[in-house]
Amino acid sequence: MHDSSLEFARFYSHSQGDRLQRCVEQRVIYRSKPSVIFFSYEPLSALLAWPPAQVALALLSGAWIALCAVKMRWVQEAGYFSLVIGGKRVREYSTEAYARSQFLACSWEMPLEIATNFISGVICVVVVLLASRRQIEVAKLVVIAYGVLDAILNLLIFVRMMSQGAGRTGLNTPSYSFIVFVLTVSGRGDAWEGGRAESSVQDLLVFPVPVAYIEPYAVELVALSGAIRTGTGLAAGGWRYPSVGMLGAGAAFLLMRERLRLQALQEARKEAACGLEERWEEMRTSSAIETLSRVVKRATAYAELDGRCREPIVVVSTEDSSQSPEEIEAEEPRSATGRQTHQACAASLDQLYAQAVLLDPIFLLKVQSLAETVDGYLPAWEGREGPSYVRWREAVADRSMERRVRWASIKSASRAIEKVQLLCHGRLSDLTDVVRQSLVFTGVEELTEGVRAVLEDPELEVVRIKNRLDEAYDSRLSGGYRDVAINVRVVNEETRRKGVEGHVCELRLAVMPMHQLVYSTSSLRYQSYKQILSFRRDCFKPWQVLGMLARQLSLGLLVPASLRSGGASMSPSDFTSSLSSCKDEEGDRSEVTLARVRSHHRGNVLDEHLERAAHGLDEVATSTIMFSSTPLTNAVNKHFFQAILFMVGVAYGYFVFAGAKAHATFTNGAMSSTLYRLELRRVRDRSVGARAELYKSSFALVRDACSRFHPSSVSVDNASLYFTFNESVVVNGWQLEIAADPEQAQYDPQELVLERWEQATKAGNASWVEVSSFSCSDWPGLQLCDASPELARGTSIRFELRQTWRSTLRYVNYVLPSSFCFLAVFFALMRNSFVAKTFAASCFHVVGLMELATSMPLSLRDPLSAHDFLFGIADLSYGLILQFREKYTLHVLPVYIIFISIGATAVDMDWFRSSKSFSMDYIPFTAYVLLSVWLYFQVSRKLQFRRAMSYVKEEQVKYDQCWALLLEQDDSKPQLTRLADICSLHPAGRAEQWSSRDVDCENSKPSIFDLSLLCVPSWTGPGKANPVMRVESLDQLYAQAVLLDPTFLLKVQSLAETVDGYLPAWEGREGPSYVRWREAVADRSMERRVRWASIKSASRAIEKVVRSYSYQVYCLTDVVRQSLVFTGVEELTEGVRAVLEDPELEVVRIKNRLDEAYDSRLSGGYRDVAINVRVVNEETRRKGVEGHVCELRLILKEFHALKSMDGHKRYVRFRNSIGE
Description:
- By secondary structure, this protein is of the alpha+beta class.
- It contains 48 helices and 24 strands.
- It has a 5-stranded antiparallel β-sheet. The chain has a 5-stranded antiparallel β-sheet with strand order 11-12-8-14-15, with no helix packed on it. A 4-stranded mixed β-sheet has the order 4-7-6-5.
- Helix 8 (136-164) runs antiparallel to helix 9, helix 11 runs antiparallel to helix 12 and helix 31 (639-658) runs antiparallel to helix 33 (805-829).
- The model is unreliable at 185-204, 301-344, 542-546, 548-568, 999-1004 and 1016-1026 (pLDDT under 50).
């Protein structure tokens, strides 16, 4: 029979520990079968997972952003609602055109509307990137979150417009459209059609927010949203093409779905007509059908529960198959044995398959026993004459017949993923047929006896019965085929020992006349349209949504997350304990041991701790962490560093929000007064005087480029005009209309000054304060200043007082570091080190990009532009180092400090051409702060290293004395030199863990795990022709270790016998003792004294990966390890030679700590020879672990005898202090 445990082991030695669960979460089925998207219970997720849809969305997003940019350019060039750019603070435009737009809303609501337009396109790009990275759930959450955010923004715009009484925005969008955006289309992405804005497919009450709980109806919601938007467009007097497209796409999707459904229904009827319905008509009149129904009904009903749980759940008759999962869960759970247990459910598909591998042979024996008891038949391999069967009672006596039986294998993982995604709606609880078998009976009477036998079996706990031989069953769902499916648990001593007594299997009891009509080809056809026919059959109805949502919310509030996630709280120590307990079972092969370990937890428990927890850093000082391979990633998990980030954020925030720049930015050039004076200092014709009375009705104050305020009275005094307002209004600009009469062109103003009257305050007396001035000598490009006076007729000039975009952007640049510091602290507290590090680095690289943007157009003569440019280069460069090469954080920091210090000094001293003398004030305050931080870490590191050395000083003295005695021996130095020469052939370089795609694995034609599920790029290692992959998953690495450990142990035993080595024994009262392996081979009692090294604890493995290997799992090469002890250097050298000459060992690296050049302070004085090897033989190739690197330590007895538990504890303190 097929060895499912070996296939399981081979698969997980080549893949991540949660590979199957990832396939479910990444919706891989929609990439291979896009047609099933029409009948998916999650159409939005399905489309996001489909690459062509991703490409289409990316193209539409790019076109959308380009359209927004074009519209922005048009708005800017029009001049009516100018977004102030440096230098263009005086604009002229057509007075007639501007008069038509004076009632538009163009305050902060216009930039907010523009922002929503851009953000919608950016969000789509982000969603595409996430979907392409197979982060479907995150992409969907981004869409929903943006829908909520955009609804809030549109509501703010609507309220603002209502308070102003404005009918349209500066982009000509009607005010009522925004309330429609809030109620139906929250995620806006406005497309302009005839000067009107259009929304995208984002919706608060229709789409996308409801996707969070009723995604099965997403297509209908999209169509409804499109219909509402189309109606809104018609009401506004124009077509909204994106809305029409949205409505058309939704309608086309629904029509295609209905067409495919009718086609599948027709095929199902044809399938049923091929003899199945005739056979059913022959059987349905039999009294045995009624007897079978009564037997099933008498079976006690139990609550339907997770098929992976260990809580007893039993029988549900398919006569009531319309019962929803919620109605079933409402029933009281009971068990046939009257007992109840509460144990954790399997949390992933990978854990479910680990249980299945362990249970499959046990369930097979149980089915054989049942077949013999009830005289059942078993399907045989099909011949030319069609289906055939084997009577099991005859097969027991004739083993040749047993080989003809076609036993059902464990369900294919690809099919399980497909079923979970398409038929189980993502619920693993519905997947109860991973382990399955079939029994065939000659008639319904015999089948009924089979059901009774299952119900009465003391080792079978019935979970559910699907009686498809019931007249109430709709046979169209199974293409006319009928049988009885019984879900059971096998509860006996063996399943309890392996911990799989909670796994649910499926036993199908079929009637031979009907079973004979089912072929493998018809089964494939049935699978192809079953999902279509069962679409939404058990989906939640719209009226059930509120109740379901309330139930989920209450569950989320009342049930701890660790329980809901099915064991997410397992720590690395728990994993190590589980591994040890599983290995203690004698007689289990390593493949079975691996399956047992995996059956106890989710597949990615170690990777999750590695990625999201600061495991292994609690005992390490921050100053030590800053010198590790990933200083920033590790440091953000330390409370000391978090406190520093928080204080920096507070300090930056105070500086930003309490300074003059904050006041200037937030006031945005606003001023207020009741009296203004306009002085005309020069006109076009200098031979005549200014006629101020011509401009009595031409002056107006302007707010946000749209709202205009005219004076209540005007008085003239020579060349000055005095404008009086009834009340003080807040404005940020003013305008002047040029006389339209050509005869008055000679009086066109060429130089003027506007002043406002400021009332007396405590700070000073009342006085005139200049607002702005104008001179044609500064603005020669204006038509007003042109030599031809006709060009200025019918124009108006607007004078902007608002902040320029460069000034605003520069202020935002000051705000960003404070925000990034707070976000880094938040995500660090959430144990998301990568995101926290990214925000911390963003204080430099994102700020650097912003600084480069504010420096454009670049002018080195402009101090602000030059300053931004230099700081932008420095911040961007250092930020990229923090993000991608963080191990150089402290190495590059002094260079950064010197660069910004010299750069700032050069700018302030006009590139050293100024006569001003150097001042310390030229150096930025940031440079002083960073220099202090750098000096603190340098000094603290040295102090920490001294403290660490004091922990192992006692042991180091002993080891150094032992080393000195060894060197004093006459024959030691030549032997040490010889050892160094041998070890130099394999220098202490870099060793990496590999996972090879071996040919045997590809040719084995696996029946459970399709190799296409691996889906990982190959990487060819040095000197290797076969494609290999680096091991990136810690769970995968431990799977390989479990498989390889017994093989490596045998190899070490062989080496010990060859070189006459010793092995450490369990310590007695007299201290360390050793076992000579040659003697232990002859005396098995001595073998039991050997203290074999166990697989490295998961906690220590995570510590090493985090502290020393930059989170690169493939650098961890001592998970599987053993030691050999030798009496002298000569014997140890022979041991090294034996390892090098062994044909089954591939030496990867040798660390010779017995070299005189080795600095023993790094290991607390301890010395040995560590050899990293790969075991390459038939056994490791069979298991697929020939790429795993183990460690063999060759130790001198003198050094090993000095080791003690107290010394090891002190070494652990030393190791933690230096962050090793």
